[in-house]
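Standup notes
- DV: blocked on the single-chain target, sequence here:
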Amino acid sequence: MSLHVALIEPRIPPNTGNIARLCAATDTPLHLIEPLGFSLDDREVRRAGLDYWSQVDLWVHPGWRAFRDAIARERCLYFSANATRDYRHAPFRANSCLVFGNETDGMPARILEKHPERCFRIPMPGDVRSLNLANAVSIVLYEGLGRVPADPLSRGDAGARLPVPADPG
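- DV (later): unblocked, structure below
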């Protein structure tokens, strides 16, 4: 696996379902850090993930400490509207874990304070404060997949380096 996605205490079922479908499509493991704001059996979560849930490499951690025990700190890159560094400068590496806060509280302040050099944001020049969580995960995950070589053992093309179009100018 080239990258992982982790969601800290997600609250909105359709967002998590859409992110699960994205993870299935890219062969990316998904880590959910409890408490969740819904049940994984919730109809809205299942509906948004369609019939791809069986293809998701899903890890559910009973809390932040359990997640930290499972994933080494140096693998984590944190993404928040409250960070200052541009996500395009994130040091994506094979096996990086892309960590996102939840839809209502965002990234916990303790993480932003403790790891500012590993916190990144998606720049938005307009008046919008933040993006939908599923959209933010999509943007960051595809940026990372485009920069991290594909795992030769992954199924199909998932995670393959994306071709860069020629500059028309």
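- Follow-up: The two ends are 36 Å apart (CA to CA).
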